[in-house]
Design goal:
Blueprint: H1 2-24, E1 33-38, H2 39-56, H3 59-66, E2 69-94, E3 97-124, H4 127-135, E4 139-140, E5 147-150, H5 152-155, E6 167-176, E7 187-194
């Protein structure tokens, strides 16, 4: 219990910082959030995470082979004490080429405490999914009825005959003190990055 009280200021500070980032990261013109992040670094981390995902979840290759685009967020940091938030940058791939860079942010409240790090990939299976991402000024995951979240066990049994249209989400590399990962309410916004 003492450890929990010692961590409380740190976790509260992290949650406040994440919420500040998510609130301050409003749209920045036609290109999304203005950012000083390096596109090459985001791309390298995203490609590495995607290759790691393929090794640990063989069914993800089936998703990739059928998808029109893949949006990969390699490093999402989530923290909270009652108030919480998550944050991370990622890359959209079309035909194995970087087609854009995006930020994933969320805010939450309720019974929660801890820190967590994870990544996730969204496999956009049809043109409607890509259009939804590109036409919105901040796309909220879960606002579309055809999102399927695949856990590690289900990812082993994916085949080309079980796939349908829509969006498939695969969470990977989960580490930390918080239980479970929810993508519900996560907002994805395009970044204006330096090339």
């Amino acid at each position: 219990m003492r450890t929990l009280f010692r961590l409380f200021p740190l976790l509260s500070g992290l949650a406040l910082a994440l919420l500040t980032v998510s609130c301050a990261s409003g749209p920045g013109g036609d290109y999304g959030i203005a950012s000083n992040v390096d596109a090459r670094k985001i791309d390298q981390k995203s490609r590495s995470a995607l290759e790691s995902l393929y090794r640990s979840h063989p069914g993800a290759r089936s998703l990739a082979a059928r998808s029109r685009a893949i949006l990969v967020f390699p490093d999402i940091l989530k923290g909270g004490v009652i108030l919480g938030g998550s944050y991370g940058d990622g890359t959209l791939y079309q035909r194995n080429r970087a087609a854009g860079f995006y930020r994933s942010i969320s805010a939450s409240y309720g019974l929660q405490i801890g820190l967590q790090k994870y990544g996730y990939a969204l496999f956009l299976m049809d043109s409607a999914a890509i259009n939804s991402l590109n036409s919105s000024d901040g796309w909220e995951i879960g606002s579309t009825p055809n999102l399927v979240v695949i856990d590690q066990g289900a990812a082993l049994h994916i085949s080309s005959t079980t796939l349908e249209d829509g969006i498939y989400a695969v969470v990977f590399g989960q580490k930390g003190l918080m239980a479970g990962v929810s993508l519900e309410g996560t907002k994805v916004t395009r970044l204006a990055v330096k090339q």
